[in-house]
Amino acid sequence: MKSIADLGDVAGQRALVRCDFNVPLQGDQITDDGRIRAALPTLTALQQAGAKIVIMAHMGRPDGEVNPKYSLAPVAARLGELLGCDVALAANVVGSSAQETVAGLDNGQVALVENVRFEPGETSKDDGERLELAEKYAALGDFFVSDGFGVVHRKQASVYDVAKLLPAYAGFLVEAEVEVLKKLTVAPQRPYVVILGGAKVADKLAVIDNLLKVADTLIIGGGMAYTFAKAQGYEVGKSLLDETKIDDCAGYLQQGEALGKKVLLPVDALCVGENAIDFSTFTLSGDVVEADITDLPADRGGCDIGPKSAEVFASEIAGAKTVFWNGPMGVFEIDALADGTKGVAKALVDSDAFTVVGGGDSAAAVRAFGYDDSQFGHISTGGGASLEYLEGKELPGLSVLEEVS
Q1: Which residues are catalytic?
Q2: What is the pTM of this model?
Q3: Which of 72, 231, 273, 285 has the highest CB neighbour number within 10 Å of its CB?
Q4: Which residues contact 16 (CB under 8 A, 6 or more apart)?
């Protein structure tokens, strides 16, 4: 891939930059600006080079329709604060407002067009429809910079198609993310520990399949752990369970044993009554009961790993040289169910290993707990993209950059 470090004199040229600014909001307030901060090195370098910067990004899933709920206005305001300059926000994506906003830029100035997913062609499966929209994007820039790592696994107009129409370069963020992922897949320092959590076991099976061949230890927590517990023959009460994946989980446990890999599952859990959690507000009603994984209450569901599991997991992390973590250990948004995730986060901070937090909820959790990004080796901006890379999948947004270089 060509990097923006390979750019020549771009003063006065329009840099069309794809960023990932899909940040969490409460109302119109950004609760985690990590993805915006991650774009600053690329944007600052382009400013200093005298380019006119035009940013494309998305927010949520408006399904190709204009929806004020998903406006990038809060992003424009926060980005302006971080850059220390005004960031103009066009009222549309490729219409007259976008064209006039871009035309009015001076060297070093920054503009943001509205949510690219307001355009139905952005996520279309029809190649021609995407290309037609990408041609309108390309009219806004002289060269393209791909710096939205969180979307490089998507074959979308602002990620893939536009890179074929303009001279295309990887931004510093995309370069850094790929470099880190290569460290996890090509001769990682050992022992190499992978920690996987989150709710859906189906989302992680492919990465388990690939990482069992690379990692030395696989630690499994979160809601996905209960399907593995069921595969071991334990009853899991009202815990999250994917009946269709029990045999798969049993197979991976056997595969890990055959490969001589250590697979660690929770030995205890914190359990709550059925329907005790309101996930819209993350409030808990009722008490929390600690139980061994072999004896979970029939009328309760596990919603966090227990203290014994946290201790076992932390001990394993302490002996590692490389650690990758994706997915919380429980419902960390609720204090009573956050200790397991906090324990893993602290173990990573205390470790001498090269530690990578794989984006998404894990990144949100460590920041919510008050940790600084600098306390980890790397915090990824793209959980889904990271997992697909580790699965060995081809990521369209990266492959197109290699193709056009």
Answers
A1: 35, 200, 360, 384
A2: 0.89
A3: 72
A4: 54, 56, 137, 138, 140, 141, 142, 143, 144, 145, 162, 166
